[in-house]
């Protein structure tokens, strides 16, 4: 686990995570001739315009045919290319699960499935587009690495890192502008958690857009005399198991926070690991077996129990249950 707890975690300006992907793949296009990009009629939404304009012979506009896009990406991978597919998370996973399973995961193809507009913060587009089951779908497939980034800088770094990673990857990011707080020169290491704040009373494991909310909650908890350890779990599969054990051995209780269904999400992966190795009281913050609805990202996060106050409440509940 990389320790960045000495940094002063401040919002250095809000940016959308999908732009981190778009800017990074453009840089990759300049650096590597084997990187190709495919899109399902969402070039602007995935921030792929610069790549498409600069490298037209390496950009494939497939149209609204996501299943075909996955098959084409698998075929390109067999020729030595490193294909990055781009569409909304709902279409990148739920709509094409069979193609990913058969043509990419089972066949062990070096395809990077990059998905924007994930989670409830898709906002006004409503429940039909707000997929909160995608991590569950992807993590069950043998051999697929699952990454969920928290801000622009981490998304940029993760996009660069997965180009070097051999094997299929699911990279998840979002639509809204969110606080950008990861250091600009940060190097993403697949499978390694980030310690953002040291603490002794409770371990809070967060992923994606929830990381900043957890940092806010940890700051508020100080006023209550509670020392929270905050760990950014960007790589959900494989988990940084050493980081999880190291933290809960100290705090003896845990909270997880994710913009995803609790069922099948990061929290269940951590809970399952702890149950087998070091049984620990745990509370989970996330979507609780419901679909979303239309609204602003902040309104929806509050309504569905993923706000700062919900994290603080989960901490209070788990501390009351922990074994001293």
Structural description of this entry:
This protein starts with a strand and ends with a helix. α1 (about 15-30) runs parallel beside α7, α3 (about 65-80) packs parallel to α5 and α8 packs across α12 (about 310-320). The protein has two domains: about 1-10 and about 190-320, Rossmann fold (3-Layer(aba) Sandwich), CATH 3.40.50.920; about 15-180, Rossmann fold, CATH 3.40.50.970. It is α/β, with parallel strands linked by helices. The chain contains twelve helices and 15 strands. The model has no long low-confidence stretch (mean pLDDT about 95). The protein has helices at about 15-30, 50-55, 65-80, 90-95, 95-105, 135-140, 150-165, 210-220, 240-250, 265-275, 295-305, 310-320, and strands at about 1-5, 15, 35-40, 60, 80-90, 110-115, 145-150, 170, 175-180, 195, 200-205, 230, 235, 255-260, 280-285. The chain has a seven-stranded mixed beta sheet, with helices on both faces. A six-stranded mixed beta sheet has the order 1-10-12-11-14-15, with helices on both faces.
CATH homologous superfamily of the largest domain, by name? Thiamin diphosphate (ThDP)-binding fold, Pyr/PP domains
Report the mean per-residue pLDDT as an integer.
94
- Count of domains: 2
Rg for CA atoms: 19 Å
**Strand element count:** 15
Multimeric status of the protein: single chain
- Unreliable stretches, pLDDT < 50, 5 or more residues? none
Distance between the termini: 25 Å
The CATH class of the largest domain is: Alpha Beta
Structural class: alpha/beta
Q: What sort of overall outline do the alpha carbons produce when their principal axes are compared?
A: globular
CATH topology label of the largest domain: Rossmann fold
H/E element sequence: EEHEHEHEHHEHEHEEEEHEEHEHEHH
Percent strand: 15-25%
CATH architecture of the largest domain: 3-Layer(aba) Sandwich
Q: Helix content range of the residues, please?
A: 25-40%
| Tally of helical segments | 12
Strand order of the largest sheet: 4-3-5-6-8-7-13
Sheet with most strands = 7 strands, mixed
């Amino acid at each position: 686990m990389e320790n960045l707890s000495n940094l002063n975690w401040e919002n250095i300006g809000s940016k959308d995570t999908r732009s981190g992907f778009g800017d990074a793949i453009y840089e990759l296009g300049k650096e590597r001739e084997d990187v190709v990009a495919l899109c399902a009629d969402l070039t602007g939404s995935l921030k792929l315009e610069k790549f498409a304009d600069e490298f037209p012979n390496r950009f494939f506009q497939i149209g609204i045919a996501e299943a075909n896009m996955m098959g084409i990406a698998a075929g390109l991978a067999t020729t030595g290319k490193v294909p990055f597919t781009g569409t909304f998370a709902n279409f990148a996973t739920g709509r094409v699960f069979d193609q990913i399973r058969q043509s990419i995961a089972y066949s062990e193809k070096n395809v990077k499935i990059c998905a924007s507009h994930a989670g409830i913060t898709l906002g006004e587009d409503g429940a039909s587009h707000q997929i909160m089951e995608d991590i569950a779908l992807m993590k069950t497939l043998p051999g697929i690495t699952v990454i969920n980034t928290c801000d622009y800088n981490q998304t940029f770094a993760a996009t660069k890192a997965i180009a070097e990673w051999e094997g299929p990857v699911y990279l998840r990011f979002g639509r809204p502008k969110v606080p950008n707080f990861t250091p600009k020169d940060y190097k993403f290491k697949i499978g390694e958690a980030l310690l953002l704040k040291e603490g002794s009373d409770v371990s809070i494991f967060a992923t994606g857009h929830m990381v900043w909310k957890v940092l806010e909650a940890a700051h508020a908890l100080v006023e209550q005399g509670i020392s929270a350890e905050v760990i950014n779990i960007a790589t959900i599969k494989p988990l940084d198991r050493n980081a999880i054990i190291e933290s809960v051995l100290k705090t003896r209780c845990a909270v997880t926070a994710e913009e995803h269904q609790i069922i099948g999400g990061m929290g269940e992966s951590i809970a399952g690991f702890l149950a087998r190795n070091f049984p620990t009281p745990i509370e989970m913050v996330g979507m609780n077996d419901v679909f979303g609805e239309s609204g602003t990202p902040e309104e929806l996060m509050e309504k569905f129990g993923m706000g700062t106050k919900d994290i603080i409440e989960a901490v209070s509940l788990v501390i009351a249950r922990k074994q001293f």
